[in-house]
Amino acid sequence: MKSQSNSLHVTLAHRLLDYVRAGHLQAGHHLTEQSLAQALGASRSPIRGALAYLAEKGIVGAQPPRRGLFLLKGVDQLGVIEEELGTSQDDQIYLQLARDKLSGIWGDTLSENDAMRRYSLTRERVRRVLARAANEGWMEQRASKGWSFLPMIDGPQACEESYTLRQMLEPAAMLLPDFAIDSTVLRRVRLQQQALADGGWRHAGHAEMYQANATFHEALASLSGNRFIAQTVTRQNQLRRLLEYQETLDRERIRRQCLEHLAILDLLEKGERAQASALLARHLGNASEEKVQQLQRQQQSTPRFKPLSEPIVSHADPMEETAQFSLMAQAKNQE
Predict the structure, then answer these.
(1) pLDDT over 70, % of the chain
(2) Is 143 in the same domain as 70?
(3) Are 228 and 296 in the same domain?
(4) Are residues 209 and 291 in the same domain?
(5) Rounded to two decimals, what is the model's pTM?
(6) pLDDT digits (tens, 9 = 90+) for 78-114
(7) What residues pair up with 31 in beta bridges, in sequence order?
(8) What is the CATH number of the domain that holds 54?
(9) Are residues 167 and 275 in the same domain?
(10) Distance of CA 221 to CAs 58, 171, 229, Å?
């Protein structure tokens, strides 16, 4: 019997897979509604719906005589699986919101009514998308009405400045006296990078690649023994999130970067910090050059401002569309 999955269940299912990847969970891992509700910031009822949806796809299931649900597929199999699941409608709108902001369609603030018209969504779904953006650090809800966009790395110049800071900071952090090589941390990061290098790079999406890259650099910064270095690297990753969502994925570059990450880990595990630091500096320099050039090309080929005449149609079910048009009419009357 099929579960009655809705768009929220599908969105949570994708986030649950992100959680599995971040923790590098393997087949047989026990999944509980309570732990997932805490990790994903959702109530247990929609978590239950997301698990039912994933059970239909053969990703989670029971393992008698043990009680509860367990992962049936390991993290190394999720690239192909998520491609089969497709992208949820909320994910599509979320990515479009990010691209619209970078292309200049939105200013510093955004009202829920404007977002409802632009993306043809109900207020509930708009709030869900905006709440996700706030949770990921590039929007916040205003004390009065509406939402604000937070300052981000939004172009080639800001991107180059960010990489300059990181080139000064991250390689030097490896040479600090308090830098401690933690085999547990390095092993966790290696598993994630190895899974991508072994074939995950062919299927990984924007969010997955951003998270894997951010985890690598933040993990190394955390070993520096300096909390402010770690905080700075984390903040720089948050600031560049929108750019990662905007760009077209270069699969070959992803594979190459994963191999460079693994080479840096190899050197650290041998205790060769100076060589690892030098390789990290070259890695960041190459990444900066590639990313800035790509952004410059995009900036030249993409109009900075676009009219808001055409909505982005969401293929909701008929009942949801009826509710949607009702809410949009109410919003129009309130203006």
Answers:
(1) 80
(2) no
(3) yes
(4) yes
(5) 0.63
(6) 655 555 555 567 778 888 898 898 888 999 999 999 9
(7) 69
(8) 1.10.10.10
(9) yes
(10) 37, 9, 6
Q: Tell me the three state secondary structure of residue 147.
A: strand
For residue range 199-225, list pLDDT tens digits in order: 877 777 777 788 889 989 999 999 999
Residues 296 and 161 occupy one common structural domain: yes
Kindly state whether residue 320 falls inside one of the protein's structural domains: no
Query: Is 314 a member of any domain?
Result: no
Hey, what amino acid is at 325? F
- Residues in a beta bridge with 110: 147
Q: Which domain holds residue 33?
A: 7-85
Q: CA-to-CA distance for 111 and 108, rounded, in angstroms?
A: 11
**Higher per-residue pLDDT: 245 or 166:** 166
* Position 258, amino acid: C
Alpha helices for 150-199 (secondary structure H): 156-173, 183-197
Question: Bridge partners of 95?
Answer: none
For 251-292, the DSSP string reads HHHHHHHHHHHHHHHHHHHTT-HHHHHHHHHHHHHHHHHHHH
Which amino acid does the sequence have at 100? Answer: D
The predicted structure's pLDDT at residue 328 = 43
In a domain, residue 175? The reply is: yes
The total number of residues written for the chain in this structure: 335
Query: Phi first, then psi: what are they for 67, rounded to 5°?
Result: -90, 150
Structure tokens at 132: 């996700």
Residue whose structure tokens are 């998520």: 82
Q: What are the structure tokens assigned to 243, written together?
A: 């750019």
Question: String of b and e for 14-24 (b: at least 16 CB within 10 Å)?
Answer: bbbbbbbbbeb
Is residue 312 assigned to a domain? no
Side-chain-side CA neighbours of residue 57 (13 Å) = 22
Mean pLDDT of 178-188: 92
The maximal CA–CA distance of the chain, rounded, in angstroms, is 67
Strands of the 147-149 sheet, one edge to the other: 109-110, 147-149, 139-141
- How many domains does the chain divide into? 3
Positive or negative torsion for Cα 96, 99, 104, 108: positive
Alpha-carbon distance values, 96 to 105, 204, 277, 312 (Å) = 11, 18, 37, 9
Amino acid found at 178: D
Q: Are residues 80 and 104 in the same domain?
A: no
Judgement on whether residues 145 and 173 belong to the same structural domain of the protein: no
